[in-house]
Amino acid sequence: MGKTTAEKIFASHLVDEPFTGTKVLRLDVVMCHEITTPIAIADLVARGKDRVFDATKIKAVIDHVTPSKDSKTATQAKMLREWARRHDIKDFFDVGANGVCHALFPEKGFIRPGYTVIMGDSHTCTHGAFGAFAAGVGTTDLEVGILKGVCAFREPKTIRVNLNGTLPKGVYAKDAILYVIGQLGVNGATDRVLEFRGPVVDAMTMESRMTLSNMAIEAGGTSGICMPDMVTVEYLWPFIQNEYSSKEAALAAFSQWRSDDDAQYERVLDFDLSNLEPIVTFGYKPDQVKPATELAGTAVDQVYLGSCTNGRLEDLRVAAEILKGRKIAPTVRGILSPATPKIYQDAMAEGIIDIFMEAGFCVTNPTCGACLGMSNGVLAEGEVCASTTNRNFMGRMGKGGMVHLMSPATSAATAIEGKIADPRKYL
Amino acid sequence: MKAFGGSVLFLDRSDINTDEIIPAKYLTEITKEDLQPYILEDLKLPGFDPKGEKTKAARVVVSRANFGCGSSREHAPWVFEVNGITAVIAESFARIFRQNMFNCGMAAIELPKEKIDALFAYAGTAETAISLDVETQTLTVRGAGKEETISFDISPFDKALVLAGGWVDYADQKY
């Protein structure tokens, strides 16, 4: 019987099975940011275990609040910074070089098909886009990961999600994943891996696949995995060209991690996305979704474009195409946070930043700040934000605030009108 | 043998998320104890007061499906712990929250809907208490002159973590 990607990764990384159903895996990458890691560091120090299992496999970034906004966040940053220095963690990204973790780490080439990855951040599932098993964990799992390079998981069952057809103009990966979450429900994939397959995924860039995988957790999924293919090879080529004689050789090596044709799935879901419309959330759960046309006219106070879901260059390009030569509504605050310094620079070189600024957007440095209401764009009581982020819980972006999740294109159209708008009329 | 128990806080809603349990603005704290005043601060539920006596007295939380969804923040179990709550009983949990509870040596117990309904039948009565024995996998609920004992399933690994008091020492000894 064949195996799924997740089963292959579990089998190849198995360190121990202390009890039936629990697998302890060897970790290839442990990622850290300054919100959930400092307590892990403090606890390791307090226990007399201030060690790291392998400094080359630990990647760290200050991204949630950066530059620090007050004494407390400055202390968190300092703890992470000093720990990285103390243990000679070379892949540490501080102010000036830092960006949103799940955009920055793939951009640096830290992920490979077949890898196991954890981070104290629920959207770590993003890295599954590379054919890796990547999962968000809490601080204690992170602490054990830092100390021993292992993590325990229940072997997840896999739900195969076939995205068939082709995405229509004006409809993107974000709309596809919002639609899938709407179908699955917010706990439809708990303790499950979502395996994204089909012609829609095959046609996607790595950036779009990361958008898809990023939101697997919003259906409760442990990881959201895409099959490694030539698109994966092309993305990683600058980082692997010394390891493989050709792209074809890399593809052959990566293909071992693809699910076998006769792999067994818990469920197989087929969705034809050929007639999908732009999708927007309307409530306080990411499975509460409607076509943008049904919510058109809903007034918003703020439009936020950024985050580990949609702060990448292709997202900025799509929005800029809509914003070019136009102004955002005077009733709206537009905020753009390019997800990494490279994205920021590339967007400047392409004139995209100019387009945003001429349209009336405020452009911030790369940070997670607004997405979870920690800095750079917190909402006031009763305010509404149209956002390209991944989570619309009540008060997520600030106490008493409301969030509508949507694609970068829909957010750009919404910024222009000051009300939720269908982007297709601007394309 | 590790036993949990005491006064019950009933939270009658599914999908209670980690932002409601501890808002992100408090994630700048670097000790668990500093989280103590902010428990469930953003949870809007009819009749529920995060600063009320019931919250202060609570040792066990009973809730519905998909409890603890959202963020990976272990601050959510921690804010329970520093307020004296060391067990949550629900129809189901989000994976990361559930694991965080066990990793800290606390209990996240799943019961089928009808058993959760049976627990909620006690919700109106004052002085409802639940005692929970992880070793024997049973819990006893008492209130309004009634008492009943309910058995529950727990994975052997999660049970071992609760009995060991958490994952860090367990892992450091073993791996």
UniProtKB/TrEMBL annotation, chain A:
Its cofactor is [4Fe-4S] cluster. The keyword Amino-acid biosynthesis applies. Keywords: 4Fe-4S, Amino-acid biosynthesis, Branched-chain amino acid biosynthesis, Iron, Iron-sulfur, Leucine biosynthesis, Lyase, Metal-binding. It catalyses: (2R,3S)-3-isopropylmalate = (2S)-2-isopropylmalate. It comes from the Bacteria. It holds the Pfam family Aconitase. NCBIfam families: hacA_fam, IPMI_arch, PRK00402.1. Belongs to the aconitase/IPM isomerase family. LeuC type 2 subfamily. Catalyzes the isomerization between 2-isopropylmalate and 3-isopropylmalate, via the formation of 2-isopropylmaleate. This is 3-isopropylmalate dehydratase large subunit. It comes from Geobacter pickeringii. The lineage of its organism: Bacteria, Pseudomonadati, Thermodesulfobacteriota, Desulfuromonadia, Geobacterales. The gene is leuC.
TrEMBL record, chain B:
It comes from the Bacteria. It holds the Pfam family Aconitase_C. Pathway: Amino-acid biosynthesis; L-leucine biosynthesis; L-leucine from 3-methyl-2-oxobutanoate: step 2/4. Keywords: Lyase. One of its GO terms (molecular function) is 3-isopropylmalate dehydratase activity. SUPFAM superfamilies: LeuD/IlvD-like. Its EC number is 4.2.1.33. Transmembrane segments: none annotated. CDD domains: IPMI_Swivel (cd01577). InterPro entries: Aconitase/3IPM_dehydase_swvl (IPR015928), AconitaseA/IPMdHydase_ssu_swvl (IPR000573), IPMI_Swivel (IPR033940), LeuD (IPR050075). The keyword Lyase applies. Residues 54-113 form the Aconitase A/isopropylmalate dehydratase small subunit swivel domain. It catalyses: (2R,3S)-3-isopropylmalate = (2S)-2-isopropylmalate. Heterodimer of LeuC and LeuD. Catalyzes the isomerization between 2-isopropylmalate and 3-isopropylmalate, via the formation of 2-isopropylmaleate. This is 3-isopropylmalate dehydratase. It comes from Geobacter pickeringii.
